[in-house]
Give the backbone structure.
Amino acid sequence: MIVMKFGGSSVANATAMSRVLDIIEEAAARDRVIVVSSAISGCTDALLAIAREQDPEKAINALQDKHLAIIRRLFTGKEREETTADCLDTFSEIRRIPPVLESYGEVLSTRILARKLSGEGYATKWLDSRELILTEPGEGSVGGPVRLEHTCERIRKALDASPSTRIFVAPGFIAGDTSRRVITLGRGGSDYSAAIFAAACGKADLQIWTDVPGIMTTNPKVVPAARTIATMSYRAAFDMARYGAKVLYAPTVVPARDKGIDINIRNTFDPANPGTVICGKASEVREWKGVANLDDPISGTTLICLTGEGPINAESTYRRILTALSDAGIRPLDEVRDEDCLNFFVTVRTNVSRAAVAAIHREFFEERALTTVDVYIAGAGAVGTALKGIIDAAGGKFPDAGRQINLVEISSDRGFADKVIATARRRSVFVDCTNSKEIWRKFVPLMQAGVNIVTSNRRSLAIPYPDYAALKAAASENGCFFRYDTTVGNALPILESVAGGARFGGGITCIEAVVSCTLNYIITGYDGTRSDSFATLLKRAQEEGLTEKDPRTDLAGKDALRKLLILSREAGVKLEEKDVEIIPMLGPEFFEGSVEDFYRKLVEDEPYFIKREDELDEMGMRQRFVASLRRDPSAPGGFKAEIRMKLVGVESPFYWISGTENVTVIHYGESLPLVIKGAGEGAALAASGILRNILQ
Ligand code: ADP
Ligand code: ASP
Ligand code: MG
């Protein structure tokens, strides 16, 4: 059985009713149907007003005309005559102003629907809800609690009595109480009627058709940015409904929940939209569902309720609600309260309630507007391409950072920086993923044009100290950022730790680093498997792009030198290249002649290398190429910087290193050192570090 309830606006006029008829016919093609309908829009209010009026004739005529106009549009000939006569009969009853006058609206609308469906050739039966739905006596015209089991039995009997009926039509909202008086189920009660009919059928397909696409994150008439909630638990739907989401009458949830029936809220004006499914399965993740509000006209205050599927952290929710309100200039009238960390309440004056709901909705349900940043990538090599890949994969959106990256261009052209200087908007970001020796000369003009700079290129930092200082000064003068965290240790948080340690905690006393991926690769490979000769390993490193064109540049410690310069300056030490003592890992004879000569010499000397390794093994030591900066009052500048092979024992953080791993040890005063260890290589990692610099 399909139970379909249509609300007042769904049957407001002939056009809307025709749409409803199409929806019913589509369902009737699949299964038997019970149609439950509200009165036409505004009818219940009109009847209530009529009951109060001294001279209601004019209002009664207006309401009658509305119904007759619908009948004229939907019917012709004999059907029109019969339906009109039926309608006029009901109106003559209305003219006598019987008690519970508002109960007639649903009778009027459903009689029209039933006659139309029957005219279309469906075996149709109108059911009188007043005789089927039984309640305890209630207050005034609203009945007391529904006697569900008894009611279900009566409904089942009525259905069983008409086995050949395809479509039943029943008025919503109205019922009878145990003293046989007509009563209503309360305003909005047609939803409840539908759930009761569904419960009587056991497992029914319960659909509530209205004028919005389901239960939304808040009333879309107040906040146009409201979104449909695809699925929610009975509990959340019940709470949103009872705290003011008028789209669903709260008691509706009870029989559905008790019988395990899903409630599907649909939009009559957009039948293809799947709407909301309310079911027993609460979402597995904690999440916010919606915000509703209840006005109290007497005190002029409004209770706002934020509902989640939880339990959700209370402290942070309180804070978010209060901040959202205060940002909107709204002072709450009481403290934020919660109910089991599922519903969160705050009260405001009704005259600001719309703004308050909008503010809370914005905070919890709307994507914050992202600030757009124009990004230019210089260098379309492995790192630049990986960075582009990350940005593209995210569609440029980084909501956690509140940023949307607009990747304007990635280029390896020599003139690219000049082009950016000429065309970029202020606050753009220029990313140097090149290994150019000269590109840093464009940084000052870039910053003067208001362009921020992120670089992963060590050569842009390992420049004479006065030039380095000028870049720093240009950044601060022009209000730009100049970030280069990936120049040492790739994505490892080395530079930030050094900078932090230099500023706080009494300064750095010593930094030791094994930062040259190339040399690590060779050295650790050599003392690892021992299956490859030194020359073979070096060749392979060269093939993998880990070394410079002449691998001797790496062996000479050039790359380690650049890193040590950057590290030292970050620690506040004004180091120049000439201040660093470098002892290359091979003797001077290796640095003479061509690369071929060099490889030949390596092969010749292999027996010596092996012998040396064996000696070290005997001693339980290993060789590491270590760059270090150590506080030394006797050294010029107070620090001694050197790069050389060191023997380390098993107690050293440098002992266990494999592949291209980096290890940096930072000593602060007397405290235990900070050891940062991890992957020092890889374009994707570098790109992620650069991205962090762009977004931070
Ligand atoms: P019907 O006549 O179909 O029963 P109602 O007027 O009772 O319709 O309920 C639908 C209305 O509920 C919508 O038009 C909308 O303005 C209002 N509403 C309030 N809160 C919500 C919400 N959270 N989601 C959707 N609609 C809501
Ligand atoms: N017609 C009734 C009302 O306006 C019931 C309903 O629409 O659900 O309250
Ligand atoms: Mg309603």
